[in-house]
Amino acid sequence: MRFQPVFSFKHPASSPDRRRGECGTTFVEMLVVLAIISLLAVVTLPYVEKTVQRRNEIELRRVLREVRTAIDEFHEDWEAQKIPQGRAVASENGYPVDFEVLVNGIEGVGADANFLRYLRAFPKNPFSSGDAPFEEQWLVLGYRDQPDANGWNGEDVYDLRAITERVALNGTTISDW
C-alpha cells in the first residue's frame, strides 16, 4: 500500500493561477532598501574619516618622535666626540648639517669607531601625497631658527615639522607639533 498525502502543497510560483508581476521585489521595496543603505553610509562615513585621521596622526607622532630622537642621538654623539670634528657633517652647535647625514650615516672616531647611522630612510609625512618631494612634506628648522619660523636657515637640522593645514582631532594645528 502506498502512502497518499491528504493535502498537497504546491509552490506558489508554479500554480497556474499565479498573477503576472507578483514574483520578485517591487519598486517601493527597492527604494526602501536603498534608503536604508544610504542612511547607513551617511552615518558611518564620518566615523571612517575620523579613523583615518587618527591613524595618520598616530603615524605622524611616531615619525616626529623617531626623527627628533635621531637628531638628539646625533647631538649626544657629537658632544661625546664620537663624530669627526673636521668633516662638514655637524654644525658648530653639534647638529647634523642635513638629513642625508642622518640617513646615510658617518664613520665614527675614537677607540670604538663604529659606523653611525641614525635614520633608515627619509621620513614620509602621512598627511602629504606619497610622491611629494621631501621639501614639500616637511619644514626643517635649524638650531638658530625661531620656533615659529617658516623657513630653514640652512645651517643645521634641529627640528622637523609637517607641512599641512589640517587641524588635529584634539583641535591643535598639526604643523605646530
Give a written overview of the molecule.
It is a single chain. The protein has about 180 residues and is mainly alpha-helical. The chain has one domain. It is built from three helices and four strands, in the order H-H-E-E-H-E-E. The strands form two sheets. The protein has a two-stranded antiparallel ribbon.
- Count of beta strands: 4
If you average the pLDDT, what whole number results? Answer: 85
- The rounded distance between the terminal residues' Cα atoms is 89 Å
Number of domains: 1
Low confidence ranges: none
What structural class do helix, strand and pairing data support? mainly alpha
Trace the largest sheet across and list its strands: 1-2
What is the beta-strand fraction? Answer: 5-15%
Task: List its traits.
mainly alpha; two-stranded antiparallel sheet; 3 helices; 177 residues; 4 strands; two-stranded antiparallel ribbon
